[in-house]
TrEMBL record:
GO terms for molecular function: transferase activity. Keywords: Repeat, TPR repeat, Transferase. SMART domains: TPR. PROSITE patterns: TPR (PS50005). Residues 666-686, 987-1011 are annotated as: Disordered. Residues 666-680 have a biased composition (Polar residues). This is N-alpha-acetyltransferase 15, NatA auxiliary subunit, putative. TPR repeats lie at residues 85-118, 243-276. The lineage of its organism: Eukaryota, Sar, Alveolata, Apicomplexa, Aconoidasida. GO terms for cellular component: cytoplasm. It holds the Pfam family NatA_aux_su.
Length: 1223
């Protein structure tokens, strides 16, 4: 007897129990046992829809390759039971597992229609709606669910979140009132309460706090300031978070234009965190009661306060567009008294906008608009702050200028000489065009001291600065700033921010005093990173002053073997200084502490001598081996100085812990011992003898002074390297390393060796840098920072296998799978560095030209003279030998074994590019995983009411593919695919048996890695490149280089001229200023050339003619071959004219001029092959490497570039003598 169709969907009691057991096994991830149970049910009921759907879902969980079979059973289950919401839910889960979110959403919505109480489907649909940015549908779904569920505060909070995403603040405010009423009636439990209770009527104290904070921020964002103040006053428990609470009130009163109250609350917030730059800037902006004129500050009467105007207050020096009045790409309207512009990002209380460094062409940036329009730098093709920094540092300053006046006897004479030199330099402005100005001349023309960046190009991500000085301060303003920050420093003595921030605004005399005080403090603390600490304030004047001060210390120490005394004659040198400041800052705080320690220790050594005599005779200092003990001991000694010695220090136990209660010669056995002490006192008598700790060391004054000078030498060597004086930099670092006299200071030698390695790295000698960094790595094998630096440099110079071995130190020791470890730890830098290293092997300009094809000869580097630590080098990785030639210059040889181990000879271009693609694919997958993190975070949000964090997570995840980190991966991946398409697809080349035997002992590669590398090569490289290009184009901040790569892909895929002209139009929208941008010129030239050589339909030609008229500013009805050739010739001539007048010497534009001819396979004109166009001194070292690589790659097809390559190489030798690429 046949059963009805409806009976197939009903299971008997036994099978139903097995079905429930099967679902429990799935939750416990016992998929194979669950599949056996499923098959047992299907033997008796083969057409049961829900069981068939579960089988399809299980097949997917067991193996993702069972995709076809899994969907087959899922579809069969739905056909047999169309009315089952469970079948539709599992069908949606299958689509979700394969990341087809649109289809998964349809299935979940179908499941919700069949059963409105299907909470799993509702949650999954909510997550996907948020992932797809369908906030309107998400709001409707949550409202429908709210009507059918219990109406607790958590449910209402979720609807508030939905309205907040849509920026409907009035409806949010209406619901916030209801939630407030509900919170006042329900019970609030502690965080340690019953966590199993999921009732909506119970909320923990932490969840309530998170919800109140989120609702208050919604009111602030919705500009409901009065309501927000009432809300904060009503919920006093929010005051526990003092930083957030005071910052919120400060922002509210700022928007209400109540500056005095805003300033009050910002100061309260700053007292909690005195290193917060945003709050400090807001304090300065709202400081209306501090006047620049001292007379107004002295008057305390009401009339005097009313007479003071905004222009006379400290706040008038700063400008912040907190009312959002400024419009993008317009001139900034500010008063003449404004000296500092503040970026509106300091108003962001949560901080999500600061965590992503996006492109600056689309986002509103008041600093960029000031540079472009107010300074009128757009006529020089400068539109952003970073471009201004790069443009004003194109023409280098002669390094000898920095050495003028260094031997002067006093700071006053040196500053006078400095001002005279600047005047002479500025007098030469009339003889030069603006494009030939150097940093000094630009600073004089613009009106404020520009930062000096001669070494490295500033990235576009550096445009988002918190503040930017646009004018120099006058004497009264500097005096006001000095007094103000002196008072703050006395109040917040431990704040490093307050020490470094005012240095931006001081004149030469004030800067020389305070910077000397600062670096003396840091040197006494054995700080070898002073250069990084002071780097953001390095202008031309500041660099010269620092060099003078450092040379003064070195000269005095060489002559007298003593430290130079601190100059306290600041009051006589600066007429505008405050006597209050001088009286309170006579001596460095750290030096005072050092002197007090000396006095205390000398009191220990000899009780009969006074403290003064002891400090003069002994001069010793007691320090701990670690920083925590040092701080503790110094604090103890400071307190000891105030009391008697015998009453201060307790007895020492056998474990080195102190026993309390030992005063006046009595001790009580009932006194509690210090925590961690296990011994008990046997005698009631105190110990007469106080034993020192064994883990302390005693430094003499000479040893302490030597450490101080080591810091000075490290600082001055990095400073000379910064201004491109490489010989002086190596001289001072070598002198420092070789002249360490005291054995106790030998450990600091490796700090200096590390600095020397960085100097070689910054100057393009990566193998020497690798050697020195590897010495430091072997000395401190547990330092992750040094290990990472060494790995990066090793990959730069092609030592890939060595670098991989180093990188494995910090991976899971129980798992030798290198790829799995770097994936789990999300090491983007190692993935990108490996991919770039494989890509740069063809051509690796640092190694490729000098490696012997036979592998018998040794690879040689020549660097500047160096006579240090050759023994340490040979004890590191055995790369080769260190030999000095007749001229005293050092030759570093790379042994043939190293060449063979790292496959530097037996290289296959196709294999290396495919390996590079593999690591880039790996990084791309990790970005996708991060992008999908909020899919899992949603469930935690519902339980813990973390809507504030989740909203900012949605913001960040929606912009993650616009971040500069992903752009590096994506652009390099597309470039490799394009290049592999150009060289043609080659079959995988297998190694011979002999090579396998040789490499077997050196490496043990993962067997699955080789298969995965070639998996992605099944498709056409251009199609592979378009997958990632589409990801770029879907983001709001796609930059010009992305569209340029898109053009390169499309012109190789086919002659779709409509697509190509549309890409050029998109670039024109991003850069509308002119048609001669260096990334745009080769594209326009190639387009005009290719269209003229091909026959195009009339309809397409009309659209092309319309776009060309828009881009080129022409008025043709149609374009024929003659017109296209004519306009291309005119365009090339206009581009060269723009290049000669505005960008001569810029290698980016010179490479663009070459590409105009190379893209069309034409002979390059001899007019642009002159030396005057190839000036490496006007370009950073990285740009010279890129241009040199371009010449090497194109000289085979264009013989006229061979001679230009040799000439450029010789020019680079003079500009960058240490760079091995040009040797």
């Amino acid at each position: 007897m046949k059963k009805d169709g409806n009976d197939n969907n009903k299971l008997p009691t036994k099978e139903m129990n097995n079905f429930r057991l099967m679902t429990q096994m799935i939750e416990l991830k016992k998929y194979k046992k669950a599949l056996k149970t499923c098959e047992q049910i299907l033997k008796k009921h083969p057409k049961n829809g829900e069981t068939l759907s579960v089988k399809g879902y299980l097949l997917n969980l067991i193996d993702e390759n069972n995709k076809e079979e899994a969907f087959k059973y899922a579809k069969e289950g739905i056909i047999n039971n169309l009315s089952s919401n469970f079948c539709w839910y599992l069908y949606g889960c299958l689509y979700k597992n394969y990341k087809n979110y649109e289809e998964a959403l349809k299935c979940y919505m179908k499941s919700i229609k069949l059963n409105k109480h299907d909470h799993k489907a509702i949650k999954e649909a909510s997550v996907i709606l948020l992932y797809l940015n369908k906030y309107e549908q998400f709001k409707d779904l949550r409202i429908d669910t709210y009507k059918e569920s219990a109406k607790g505060p958590k449910d209402k909070a979720l609807i508030i979140f939905a309205y907040h995403l849509l920026k409907q603040y009035e409806k949010c405010y209406h619901l916030i009132k209801q939630v407030e009423e509900d919170l006042s009636t329900i019970d609030v439990e502690n965080d340690q309460g019953d966590k199993t209770n999921n009732s909506n009527n119970i909320i923990t104290a932490n969840e309530k706090h998170q919800l109140l904070v989120y609702m208050s921020e919604i009111l602030l964002e919705g500009k409901m300031y009065k309501e927000c103040i009432q809300f904060l006053n009503k919920h006093k428990q929010l005051e526990n978070d003092k930083l957030w609470y005071n910052q919120m009130l400060g922002l509210i009163y700022l928007y209400e234009n109540d500056m005095s109250k805003a300033n009050k609350y910002f100061k309260e917030a700053f007292s909690v965190n005195s290193e917060n730059l945003n709050i400090l800037l807001l304090i300065l902006f709202t400081e209306k009661e501090i006047y620049i004129d001292e007379e107004k500050n002295a008057s305390n009467n009401k009339n005097g306060a009313l007479e003071g105007s905004d222009n006379a207050s400290l706040s008038s020096l700063f400008y912040l567009d907190y009312k959002d009045e400024h419009k993008m790409n317009e001139k900034v309207k500010i008063n003449e008294n404004v000296k500092v512009l503040l970026h509106e990002s300091i108003l962001d209380i949560y901080g999500s906008k600061k965590n992503l460094k996006l492109l600056s062409y689309i986002n509103k940036n008041i600093l960029n608009d000031y540079v472009c329009h107010n300074l009128e730098m757009k006529k020089y093709d400068v539109y952003t702050v970073s471009e201004l920094k790069n443009f004003t540092n194109i023409n280098p300053i002669n390094p000898e200028n920095f050495k003028k006046g260094i031997d002067e006897s006093s700071v006053d004479k040196f500053i006078e000489l400095l001002k005279e030199d600047i005047k002479k330099e500025c007098q030469n402005i009339s003889n030069n065009t603006a494009e030939n100005y150097n940093n000094i001349q630009w600073s004089n023309k613009i009106g404020f001291d520009l930062f000096y960046y001669p070494k490295k190009r500033v990235e576009k991500s550096m445009d988002i600065l918190y503040f930017y000085k646009i004018k120099n301060l006058n004497d009264k303003e500097e005096k006001c700033i000095e007094t103000y920050f002196t008072n703050l420093q006395n109040k917040y003595e431990n704040s490093n921010l307050l020490k470094i921030f005012p240095l931006y605004f001081y004149n030469e005399t004030k800067f020389s005093y305070y910077i000397e005080k600062l670096f003396r403090n840091l040197c006494f603390q054995k700080c070898f990173t002073i250069f990084n600490y002071i780097k953001p304030i390095l202008t031309y004047k500041n660099v010269k002053i620092l060099l003078f001060l450092l040379h003064k210390y070195i000269k005095n120490y060489d002559e007298t073997n003593k430290l130079c005394e601190f100059d306290n004659d600041y009051l006589s040198r600066d007429n505008n200084s405050n006597s209050y400041v001088i009286n309170n800052i006579e001596k460095n705080d750290f030096e005072k502490r050092e002197d007090s320690i000396n006095e205390t220790l000398n009191g220990h050594s000899d009780k009969n001598k006074t403290l003064e005599e002891g400090s003069r005779c002994n001069g010793t200092i007691e320090i701990n081996n670690n920083k925590s003990d040092e701080v503790e001991s110094e604090a103890n000694y400071m307190s000891n100085e105030k009391n008697k010695m015998k009453n201060m220090i307790g007895s020492s136990s056998s474990l080195g812990m102190y026993v309390e209660g030992m005063q006046n010669g009595n001790i009580d056995n009932k006194n509690k011992m210090t925590k961690g002490t296990t011994t008990q006192l046997k005698d009631k008598k105190p110990k007469e003898e106080i034993k020192p700790k064994l883990n302390k060391k005693i430094l003499t004054k000479e040893e302490r002074d030597e450490i101080f000078m080591l810091c000075i030498y490290s600082f001055i060597s990095q400073l000379y390297d910064y201004i491109n004086c490489v010989k002086d930099s190596l001289y001072f670092i070598d002198k420092c390393i070789n002249n360490i006299k005291h054995k106790i200071n030998e450990e600091f030698k490796y700090e200096l060796i590390f600095t020397k390695g960085l100097i070689y790295k910054r100057n393009g000698n990566y193998l020497m840098a690798f050697k020195y960094l590897d010495i430091c790595r072997n000395h401190n094998i547990g330092d992750r920072f040094i290990n990472s630096k060494t790995v990066k440099v090793g990959l730069k110079c092609g030592l890939i296998k060595y670098s991989r071995k180093m990188a494995t130190i910090f991976i899971n020791p129980l798992d030798n799978n290198f790829l799995k470890n770097i994936t789990d730890t999300q090491c983007f830098w190692i993935e990108y560095a490996l991919a770039l290293s494989y890509f740069n092997r063809h051509m690796n300009i640092h190694l490729n030209g000098s490696i012997s094809e036979q592998g018998e000869k040794l690879y040689q580097f020549k660097t500047g003279s160096s006579n240090d630590i050759s023994n340490d080098i040979s004890s590191a990785i055995n790369l080769g030998q260190v030999i000095s030639d007749e001229n005293g210059r050092e030759q570093v040889t790379l042994s043939s074994k190293v060449i063979a181990d790292n496959d530097l000879l037996s290289r296959n271009e196709h294999n290396d590019y495919s390996k590079s693609l593999f690591y880039l694919h790996l990084g791309h997958k990790q970005f996708i995983d991060i992008h999908e993190d909020h899919l899992c975070f949603y469930y935690y949000v519902l339980r813990k009411v973390l809507y504030r964090s989740y909203r900012h997570l949605l913001y960040m995840s929606s912009h993650i593919f616009s971040s500069r980190f992903y752009r590096r991966f994506g652009k390099l991946l597309i470039k490799i695919c394009i290049h592999m398409n150009d060289i043609g697809m080659k079959p995988k080349t297998e190694q011979s048996k002999n090579n396998k035997k040789k490499n077997k002992s050196n490496t043990t590669p993962n067997p699955t890695e080789d298969k995965e590398i070639y998996e992605h090569m099944k498709k056409d490289p251009l199609e592979n490149a378009m997958l990632y290009m589409n990801t770029f184009l879907s983001q709001p901040n796609a930059d010009i280089s992305v569209y340029a790569l898109n053009y390169e892909i499309e012109r190789r895929r086919g002659n779709d001229y409509v697509k190509l002209i549309n890409i050029i139009n998109e670039i024109k929208k991003l850069f509308p200023h002119h048609n001669y941008y260096y990334k745009l010129a080769p594209l326009i030239s190639h387009y005009l050339y290719s269209v003229s050589k091909d026959n195009v339909d009339d309809e397409k030609m009309k659209e092309i003619a319309k776009n060309l008229n828009t881009i080129l500013g022409l008025n043709y009805d149609t374009y024929n071959e003659e017109i296209l050739k004519k306009e291309r010739t005119n365009y090339i001539n206009n581009f060269m004219k723009f290049f000669n007048e505005n960008k001569k010497g810029d290698l980016r534009y010179l490479q663009s001029a070459f590409e105009i001819y190379t893209h069309c396979n034409e002979k390059i004109s001899n007019n642009i092959l002159l030396n005057e166009y190839m000036d490496p001194r006007k370009n950073k070292l990285g740009r010279c490497f890129k241009f040199f690589t371009f010449l090497l790659n194109n000289k085979k097809n264009h013989s006229e570039l061979s001679e230009a390559t040799n000439r450029f190489k010789e020019l680079c030798k003079e500009a960058y003598p240490l760079a091995t690429a040009f040797q």
